[in-house]
User: What shape does this take?
Amino acid sequence: MSFSNVFVCCPANTTTGGPELLHQFVNKLQGKGVDAYILYYPFDLNADTPNQYKHYHAKVATLDKVKSTSLVILPETATKLAEMFPSDNVAIWWLSVDNYFGCSPKSFGIAKIKHVASLICHKKLSFRKMRNFIHLHQSEYAKILLAENNISSLQLTDYISGAHFASKNELNINEKKKLITYNPKKGFEITRKLIDKLPEFDYVPLINMSPSEVNKTLASAMIYIDFGNHPGKDRFPREAALANCCVITGRRGSAQNNIDLPLPDKFKIEESDPDFIAHFEVLCRSIFDDFANEWLHFHEYRESIQNENNSFEKNVEEFITKYVSLN
Assistant: This one.
């Protein structure tokens, strides 16, 4: 089925990686002649485009503009909104996996209980109720999950904006400092353990910084660490690699596979390993002592990130060919 226009639903007044990708997608569609719009939700809110995303020039629409020939794309965190539209007109874009469940899909505990309760109370839709929708996957992690639930999907990944490329050569690698940067909003229970056990290292939290300040901090550091859950093909490890950091992660979520996170194996440390802290210490000291050589291990990863815009262009063209009428 081909649609006359596309409405990409986006949470209002939110400036994280997911909403940026939604604006990037509308920008690409518009550039290829598609009648495409951002549709902010809650739908009764008169929301404006955040300043950070105005340069994408995504046209904004309201709910009354949606027609019977429109395709409405919802992020996986807003599946409940699908009930407002005919099922044939709905696509779910899996920007993450864990954010749909509220936790890792294979985990147990309060978060998983809340997920099940949300399904029972109809606050989100189950896979069974979404089988007739179009599905798009941002990551290999999401593709695998959908396939396990007998749902086929089209790849629609993402790319790192050009702002992050500007910082990659800001400092000569010989001027890098022995710093370990991290995102304190993610996996901090692991990071806290490392800080407590290895206080001799210098740790820098990437918090309360503008995007340019984050870039400069990463550009000055030798290491970026990212433990905890990886809900999708995450942006921070890629931004860090472009800033010439060595990236160290765990193996949860999308970090399990080498398509979403193609790091050399030694830079992925199993967090549940009894020798986790010892392995981390040895790896960090090796990077600090021989950064010029350790940094070379990330050459292919950096090249793949730099090529993501081209891959995204191809994904968008495939999407248009399959689902959009340009007449």
About this structure: Residues 20 and 53 are 7 Å apart (CA to CA). Strands lie at 5-11, 36-41, 70-75, 90-94, 134-137, 154-155, 177-182, 202-205, 221-226, 246-249. The chain has a mean pLDDT of 92. The longest helix spans residues 308-323.
